[in-house]
Amino acid sequence: GAGVSQSPSNKVTEKGKDVELRCDPISGHTALYWYRQRLGQGLEFLIYFQGNSAPDKSGLPSDRFSAERTGESVSTLTIQRTQQEDSAVYLCASSYVLQSYEQYFGPGTRLTVT
Amino acid sequence: DQQVKQNSPSLSVQEGRISILNCDYTNSMFDYFLWYKKYPAEGPTFLISISSIKDKNEDGRFTVFLNKSAKHLSLHIVPSQPGDSAVYFCAASESGTYKYIFGTGTRLKVLA
User: Fold this and answer.
1) Are B68 and B56 within 8 A, CB to CB?
2) Pick from A61, A82, A100, A102: CA 20 to 30 A from residue A48's CA?
3) Maximum distance among all alpha carbons in chain A?
4) How many CB pairs under 8 A join A and B?
5) Which residues on chain B are in Cβ contact (under 8 Å) with A43?
6) What is the DSSP string of B5-65?
7) pLDDT digits (tens, 9 = 90+) for A46-55
């Protein structure tokens, strides 16, 4: 079956512009997660969704970051007024339920802010 | 403050020998630990996990050991194969938080 997909795979944007990153989780997975990986660093947890609800947004780096999820499907991560430090690979993962520790990751979106 | 640390950024091992990847954590509330493997240009894939009620979990060539008193876990791969060459991440979670804290990864290279 289809895995987690993310689009675009690469995005180059100018500083100050807004970007929208998309994640399509595995069908039937109720939980969805966003992570960021900066160059040479580990995965940084950003936010999780249970259905379309995000109970804890404290991992988002700043108020320029926001995320939405439509039902139990597509999620978008929006970064407003991008900065160079936002350059990273943004990874999305999904799991069958929130209590399932095994997450399935997408290939990521590489964001470069010039 | 890095709550999950992988102090070895890289490791080279001869094919057929044992690979040992280490991970240390600081938060004593963590009670579930996972290892992921990542190939270039792909997302991480789940490898093996362990709950804090156990000190060992085995799956084929992969075994994870947990030492709660030392706040240390390790992944053993025996025998190592060239296809095991990848970046390995350990991750930790505290029950009920649904947040996963990842280490910075160890790049394993298995030499043929």
Assistant:
1) no
2) A82
3) 39
4) 55
5) 44, 89, 91, 100, 102
6) E---SEEEEETTS-EEEEEEE--TT--EEEEEEE-TTS--EEEEEEETT-SEEEETTEEEE
7) 999 998 888 8
